[in-house]
Each structure stands twice: as structure tokens, then as C-alpha cells.
Amino acid sequence: MKALLLAAGFGTRLRPITNKTPKALVPVLNVPVIEYGIAFLKHHGITEIFINLHHLSEKIRDHLGDGSQFGVSITYLFEKEILGTGGSIASMKPHVSERFLVMNADVICDFDLEAFIDRHVAAKALVTLGLVRASEGDKDAVVTLSEGRIVRLLNGSPYDPLPAANAIFTGIHLIEPALFDYLPAGIFYSITSDVYQRLVCERTDIHGCFIEGRWYDAGTPETLVAASFDLLGNLPLSYPVPQLMKGYSLPADQLVILGKKAKVPAVPIRPPVIVGNQVKVIGVKTLGPWLVLGDGVSLSGGFALEREVYLPGANGKRRIETTAGVLYY
What we know:
By secondary structure, the chain is α/β, with parallel strands linked by helices.
């Protein structure tokens, strides 16, 4: 099976961070978020990966290369004009002749992919969307799943009145090649609102499957910080992420990872704490808990240094407040 990671977007929800860093390379626990997707796919035997590119495309290509450093093969699909999810998925037509997986590059997931595929095959679905359960009134809930079939997507449904939404779409799609019959190529459109919603209304075989496991959307400052702290407190993942392996054997109240050439004062460290490479911190009384310092961070005095995430190169001057903690960039 092949997979497509969607990485062409401008990352508007993460601006101004993504003005210079593509969203796929924004780190979570000092690991570029797209590397989690690559590691997840490889763990499940998917090593032929396609990545669509547009915004800051050279930075992604320079970082990932041909994929060999990750044990996979990467093919890039460059979009001269951004195509949206629909146009991007349509661009896979020359490259696949069997079902394939699509995932957003700014999500982190850990679930039983084989079981997900089995459900799709048993249902004989044209498309199966990965879902997570939603609480009543959740603003992100735009899907209704009934007996495995999607009966509402956004505001489209074959039923009147519109069924109450009970699920959130994760950006994970398992697609049969027959879907290409519905996908125009070379133009911008959203596959959810312009294709899936219509097919749901027509009672086409679009199914859903609740993924049993973990899923994080790291595409906003709020969710980026929340994902960082949830992961920090709940390692390991079921698949190896090399940069985090030192922490895989440690409970959260003992988890401390110090990067290469990190210079931190001889002060109490209160786990969980991750310090990146070439970090320099002076003039603080404690480090942590719930602290992530990215590569090249330089700080001097007057900082609380707890419940904070510092992206690479941050100096403590530019910050975004979230309900989960503070993000510095």
C-alpha cells in the first residue's frame, strides 16, 4: 500500500510561525511533526510515501530528502498552484492502482491501522474516514456515523432534519482508486465539502471508523501545546521515534531528555522536561515541570520555565498564550 501525506498548505492556523517554517516541519517534542507520520506508516509496513508540496517546499525536501534516512521512499508531488485536498488527492491517480492511505502532515496518530483497513475491506467502502468521538456540542464535530456509514458530513445528509454530529474527522482517508472517477485533476477544491459531502447526500459508500488510540492535531498553537504535553506525559508511542527513545523507558515523573551541547544551570529539574540540542539557559532557579526547549533556544533569567513550549531558536520574546500553556517561537 502507498500513502500520501498532505504538506502543501500554508499553515494559516499557525501563523506567524509558518511564515518561515512549513507546518510539516513545526516540531512536537523537538520532532518535526511530519516525522511522526512517516514513522507511523513505516511501522505499519507502508514505505512508499508521496508528499505534496507548495508552501516552503524546498525546506521540506531538504529536510526529508529521498526518505532513506527514515527507511522509506519519498516521492514529491509539487503543486505550482495549491490544489487543496481534492486536487492533491487527484494527483495520485497516475501513481496508484490499488487502495491508498491519505493523512495530514500536521497530525500525530497511534492506532491499529490493520484493523482500520480490515473494517474498510469488510464494508466494501469506496472511502473510509478515520474519526474520533466527539462530545455533544463540540464545534469540531461535523460528522455523523451510523452503523459504520457516514450519514452526515458538514451540512450534507440524505436525512432531514440534519442528524446531530457525533464525530470529528481526523484527516485520515483510506481510498479506493474508483474514487478518482469523482475527482477532477489540476484544480483547487476541498474533497470534504466538494466531493465527500455530495457523495454522502447521494448515499454513496463512504464509511467511517472510530480509531481506537491516539490522535493529535498539531495545526494550531492551542493544539500544538496540548499535543506536546499529552505526549510528554504518555510516552511511549507504539512505534519508535528515534529522538524520543531515551524517554520511552521512563515514566513522566522521571522523564528528562537533554540534547547535545545543551548548557543548563545546575538547578533542580522537575520532570517531564525535554531540552534540545545547543540550548543555552542561564539565570533560572528550576527547570520544569512540563517544559520543552527546542534546538538552539537561548534564555537568560526571569523565566518561569514550566508549562511552556519553546520552538527552535526561541529567545522568550515572542509568545502565544494558550489554555494548555505558553508557546514561544
